[in-house]
Specification:
Strand content: under 5%
Number of strands: 2
Oligomer: single chain
Helix content: 55-70%
Radius of gyration: 20 Å
Distance between the termini: 20 Å
Order of helices and strands: HHHEEH
Low-confidence stretches: none
């Protein structure tokens, strides 16, 4: 979750600096990913609860409820932000702002691409860690990662 929070922070910073609605939509998506992970963790904890008199079969299926909430939340959050920002930018178009750093003026699109590039690298690092943890969990029964990871 730390990786997604870092990505969300930098995308938000980039959207504020460059006034990019696309990057704002990306930052909302990253924050929704963080909420998604929290819901998944809640579902996993809920599924571990012991059966009760009211729920004699237990709570193991509650994990599926949370798994359903996650994509619904991503879709609604991303769609609402994209529609709002998209319609707003069509009605009132604004040019991307340049970023002034270290005595240079960096075009807004280049700054956005740099942030997206860093996001891809961080997501790849998170994927590698998750895949390794999953392989350990399944006692090496999974296929190894492709070369270069």
């Amino acid at each position: 979750m730390g990786i997604n929070l870092t990505i969300a922070f930098f995308k938000t910073l980039c959207s504020v600096v460059t006034m990019s609605s696309g990057m704002l939509s990306e930052s909302v998506h990253s924050f929704v990913d963080c909420g998604n992970q929290v819901l998944q963790l809640i579902g996993m904890q809920e599924a571990k609860r012991k059966p009760t008199a009211q729920h004699p079969l237990g709570f193991h299926r509650s994990e599926y409820i949370y798994a359903f909430l996650v994509p619904t939340m991503i879709f609604i959050g991303g769609a609402a932000t994209s529609l709002y920002e998209g319609i707003g930018k069509i009605i009132h178009p604004e040019p991307l702002q340049s970023v002034h750093a270290f005595g240079h003026s960096i075009p807004g699109w280049a700054f956005n691409l740099a942030v997206l590039g860093v996001s891809i690298v961080l997501e790849g690092y998170g994927l590698k860690n998750a895949w390794s943890a999953l392989a350990i969990l399944h006692n090496g029964l999974m296929a190894p990662l492709p070369q270069g990871f």
